[in-house]
Amino acid sequence: MPPVALRALEAAGLTPETLDVFIPHQANDRIIEALVKSIKLPESVAIAHDIRTSGNTSSASIPLAMDALLAERPELYGKSALLIGFGAGLVYAGQVVELPSKPNN
Q: Could you give the residue ranges of the DSSP H alpha helices within the chain?
């Protein structure tokens, strides 16, 4: 997954140092930490760890982790985020997105 993450960042014109948020599939904390270390994300990058409270929610893990992170850290609305998904059958995908703008309440 690290090469996929780095290619997605490169395609978006970003580097690990310029990324704001990392939201990987929430398979387990060990995998998340290995990805963070492998792509050398600095401590300034916010990392979603919804696995710690919600567990592995399969294909819903990235949007659920994004929602939980934004609820906890509203200053991240509108920031750049690297999303990485992977699963059975050796399927995977990575993309960089702009997180949604803060909703008007």
A: 2-11, 29-38, 51-54, 61-72
Looking at residue 5, its pLDDT comes to 95
Domain spans of the chain, in order of start: 2-88
Cβ neighbours for 44, distance < 8 A, ≥ 6 positions apart: 17
Kindly tell me if the per-residue pLDDT of 104 is higher than 80: no
Q: What is the pLDDT of residue 105?
A: 62
- pLDDT value at residue 48: 96
Q: Characterize 15-34 residue by residue with b for buried, 16 or more Cβ atoms within 10 angstroms of its Cβ, and e for exposed.
A: ebeebbbbbbbbbeeeebee
- Return left, alpha or beta for 43; rule: phi > 0 is left, psi -120 to 50 is alpha, else beta: alpha
For 2-88, CATH gives 3.40.47.10
- For the segment 43-55, what is each residue's pLDDT rounded down to a tens digit? 999 999 998 888 8
CA 75 to chain centre: 16
